[in-house]
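All the exercises in this workshop are built on plain-text protein records. Instead of coordinates, the fold is spelled out as a row of discrete tokens. Once this layout is familiar, the rest of the handout is easier to follow. The record below serves as our worked example for the rest of this section.
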Amino acid sequence: MQCRNTDGDFNNVQILNAIGQRVFETQLNTGVHVVSLDVTTWPVGNYIVKLTGNKSYTTRILVQH
């Protein structure tokens, strides 16, 4: 996942599973970030990615093995 945070609008990334449990979280500084995750141990299914800070953005990802 690549996140462009050049204006510093986002300072936190969370990934939640389908029942709302946090499975990943990291802080962001201003700049371009590449977050690499090993999801091979995660159950197959939909996950919610939330970027929060001065602005917010939410999207879904699908983990398949």
